[in-house]
Description:
Blueprint: E1 2-10, H1 17-29, E2 34-42, H2 49-59, E3 63-68, H3 74-83, E4 89-92, H4 104-112, E5 117-122, H5 130-146, E6 155-162, H6 163-171, H7 179-185, E7 190-195, H8 209-223, H9 226-255, H10 263-296, E8 303-306
Parallel strand pairs: 1-2, 1-4, 2-3, 5-7
Antiparallel strand pairs: 3-8, 4-6, 5-6
Helix pairs in contact: 5-8, 9-10
Amino acid sequence: MKKVDLIVPCYNESQVVNIFFAEAKRVTDELSGYQFSFIFVDDGSSDNTLELLKGLADRYDCVKYISFSRNFGKESAMYAGLKNSTGDYVVILDADLQHPPKLIPEMLEAMEEGYDCCAANRATRDGDPALRTLFTRGFYRLVNKISEVDMPDGAGDFRMMNRAMVNAVIAMSEVQRFSKGIFSWVGFKTKWISFENVERAAGVTKWNFWKLFSYAIDGITAFSTFPLKIASVLGAIISASSFIYLFYIIIKTIFVGKDVPGYASTITLMLFIGGIIILSCGILGEYVAKIYMEVKNRPVYIIRQTNVDEPKDDYRV
Ligand code: UDP
Ligand code: MG
């Protein structure tokens, strides 16, 4: 019998974990021929999410929980879930039922057809704030243009993967993780299915504009060095134009004579070039910061409590 692990990152989800479990259990109970287990990852919740998860684990053998020492973010929670999964197939779902468990049978069908991965894509963003939709769209357009990976708009982390793909994803051990990019980078045969956007069952979203914005910058810098090229190209254009201008001034001084006024143009040029230099330093800084965080090689997550038999931590060497 094939084993399927459901990985569920939870951060302050006390309002939904039980609703989620009831729904997911209902769906999986109807599927014969598979053995399902749940791996809930409590990402340092400050409410009683962990107590609820322990309650579920007491009542059901198929429930495992991993609780972090603090909030590490959804990326870390997914990574911990994947590292601690043993199933032949693994599916990652949000705790708020925005990733409907009723898609699991369809995903399993795709896996049996021979796909390595079945990823669900939100057909619409109905119900999301307009500004968020606008920026997300822009982000996907940009990232797909300038990076080596292809990330379809609306592609979340809701997907089922087979063991081979999960192992490949785990092997990408970067500390600053951007799973949407990683899933695409590792390749494998992926089937896309789409689903209607649903509102969160209860509770509130853990994202705000700045969190999403910095996540977007992380996504771009993690999979593309294009911003560094912008800096070089701007530098080259400005140097070339200043040489031409220099040549023009020399010729003009020889033939027409000296021309003292020029305060406005000097200031404008200084500010312009200064701006470009600062921008380039900023872009460079983003990458240097990334290198800095990676070389420190800190663990992606720290487990405080778990009922997993042989928990895999992420202490790096
Ligand atoms: N989540 C997490 N750690 C965080 C933030 C979120 O594990 O720091 C989980 C959260 O509990 C949920 C999933 O990630 O299961 C998606 O979060 P949310 O619903 O807040 O995001 P949205 O659906 O608004 O994008
Ligand atoms: Mg959600």
